[in-house]
Amino acid sequence: MSIDTEIPVDEVTEPWWELTRQRRLAVQRCGVCGLAQLPPRLLCTGCGGDELELGAAGRRGIVDSYTVVHRAPAPDVAVPYTLARVRLVDGPILLTRLVGDFEPRCDQPVVLTWLPLPDGRALPAFTREL
Ligand SMILES: [Zn+2]
């Protein structure tokens, strides 16, 4: 599966997107309070600090909740697909997709995979842990 929709980048998210070219998932960590957050932001959502650094994220997560999307949000998006909130081992919850042939359930362990984008970047997605 690939995603053909163009996904915009800004100065805050650009370093994070660049790491996806090497299929490296990063979380942003606060140097003041230690919070890990995703997506990357200008300020920490925990303390408002701006000492934020990207660091490697673990490849595993847990399905927090999910839904199957049958109605495309844009004409070029293929349906159905499974949209999920996945809690990463590092703490933050990522709004992502579940891919692969399995029936998801809440609290299920899942593992990182990637959906390639046409420009070489990739979207993190999750699949069943084998
Ligand atoms: Zn903080």
Report on this structure.
This protein has one domain (14-128): OB fold (Dihydrolipoamide Acetyltransferase, E2P), CATH 2.40.50. With 130 residues, the chain is mainly beta. It contains one helix and eight strands; from the N terminus they run αββββββββ. Strands 6-5-4-7-8 form a five-stranded antiparallel β-sheet, with no helix packed on it. Strands 2-1-3 form a three-stranded antiparallel β-sheet, with helices on one face. It has one helix spanning 14-20; strands spanning 26-30, 36-37, 52-56, 60-69, 81-88, 93-98, 109-116, 122-128. It is globular. Strand 5 (81-88) and strand 6 (93-98) form a beta hairpin. The chain is 5% helix and 39% strand. The structure holds zinc ion (ZN).
Q: What low-confidence regions span 5 or more consecutive residues with pLDDT below 50?
A: none
Number of DSSP strand runs: 8
Q: Give the number of domains.
A: 1
Could you tell me the strand content as a percent range?
35-45%
> SS-based structural class?
mainly beta
Average pLDDT across residues?
Answer: 93
The CATH topology is: OB fold (Dihydrolipoamide Acetyltransferase, E2P)
The gross shape turns out to be globular
Rg on CA atoms, Å: 15 Å
Strand order of the largest sheet: 6-5-4-7-8
Please report the first level of CATH classification, the CATH class. Mainly Beta
What is the terminal-to-terminal distance? 20 Å
Mind describing the biggest β-sheet? 5 strands, antiparallel
Count helical runs: 1
What's a quick, concise take on this entry?
With 130 residues, the chain is mainly beta. It is 5% helix and 39% strand.
